[in-house]
Amino acid sequence: MTTGIEDYGRRFGQAVAAELRAARGRKDITLEALAEMVGLSRSAATNYLKGRREIPMSTFLALCRALDVSPREVFQAAQDAIEQ
C-alpha cells in the first residue's frame, strides 16, 4: 500500500519525465544524441524519460541543460500536469 505522498511523488516523477520528453521533441533531439550529451546509455535515458526510474538530481540538471530548459519550468509544468 502506498501513502499519499508516495503516490504524489510517483506521479510527479512521471510528469517530470513527460515534460523532459516533450522538451526533447521540441528540440528535435534524438534519444541517442541526448543520452550522449549527458553521458548516459540509451537504455538509462529511455528509463528516465519514460518514468520507469527516478532521475537523480545531477542527471535531471544535465538533461535540462542539454535540452535548454530551466529546471523550474520542468517542475512547474509537472506540477500543473498532476493538478489537472
Order of helices and strands: HHHHH
How many strands in all?
A: 0
CATH architecture: Orthogonal Bundle
Mean pLDDT: 94
Largest sheet: none
Low-confidence stretches: none
Description:
- The chain is an all-alpha fold and 84 residues long.
- The protein has a single domain (4-78), classed as 434 Repressor (Amino-terminal Domain) (Orthogonal Bundle), CATH 1.10.260.
- It is 76% helix and 0% strand.
- The protein has helices spanning 4-27, 31-38, 42-49, 57-67, 71-83.
- 23% of the residues are buried.
A few lines on this structure:
By secondary structure, the protein is mostly helical. The chain has 5 helices and no strands. It is globular, with a radius of gyration of 13 Å.
Write the layout of secondary structure elements.
Layout: H1 4-27, H2 31-38, H3 42-49, H4 57-67, H5 71-83
Helix pairs in contact: 1-5, 2-3
Structural features:
single chain; 84 residues; mainly alpha; 434 Repressor (Amino-terminal Domain); globular
